[in-house]
């Protein structure tokens, strides 16, 4: 069940949908939250929106430098 949810969220995030465009500002804001427990899911979704592999997103999270990762994601999203 969890793997199905993850696959569906990856598919939705990769599409250039209206949902994606509306969700981006909120995801960026939430990924910046100081509480790691609350920031993890939106951080992960941001990486998926960009089409990054799960292991790369996880590695970025484990490095603990969320601000740099989010900055790169935002720049790449604006470039597209």
Please provide a brief summary of the model:
82% of the residues lie in helices and 0% in strands. The chain is mainly alpha-helical and 80 residues long.
Description of the molecule:
It is a single chain. The chain is mostly helical and 80 residues long. It has one domain. 82% of the residues lie in helices and 0% in strands. The protein is built from 5 helices and no strands. It has helices spanning 2-14, 18-31, 36-50, 54-63, 66-79. Helix 3 (36-50) packs antiparallel against helix 4 and helix 3 runs parallel beside helix 5 (66-79). The radius of gyration is 12 Å and the shape is globular. The model has no long low-confidence stretch (mean pLDDT 81).
Jot down its keywords.
80 residues; mainly alpha; 0% strand
The major sheet is characterized as:
none
**Helix percentage:** over 70%
Mean pLDDT: 81
How many H/I helical runs?
5
Structural class: mainly alpha
Element pattern in H and E:
HHHHH
Distance between the termini: 32 Å
Uncertain ranges: none
Strand content: under 5%
The beta-strand count equals 0
Tell me, what's the shape?
Answer: globular
Overall number of domains:
1
**Whole-angstrom Rg:** 12 Å
Q: What layout of secondary structure does this protein have?
A:
Elements: H1 2-14, H2 18-31, H3 36-50, H4 54-63, H5 66-79
Helix pairs in contact: 1-3, 2-3, 3-4, 3-5
């Amino acid at each position: 069940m969890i793997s199905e949810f993850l696959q569906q969220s990856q598919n939705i995030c990769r599409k250039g949908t209206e949902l994606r465009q509306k969700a981006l500002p909120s995801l960026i804001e939430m990924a910046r939250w100081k509480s790691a427990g609350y920031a993890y899911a939106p951080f992960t979704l941001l990486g998926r929106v960009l089409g990054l592999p799960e292991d790369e997103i996880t590695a970025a999270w484990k490095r603990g430098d969320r601000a740099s990762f989010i900055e790169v994601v935002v720049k790449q999203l604006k470039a597209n």
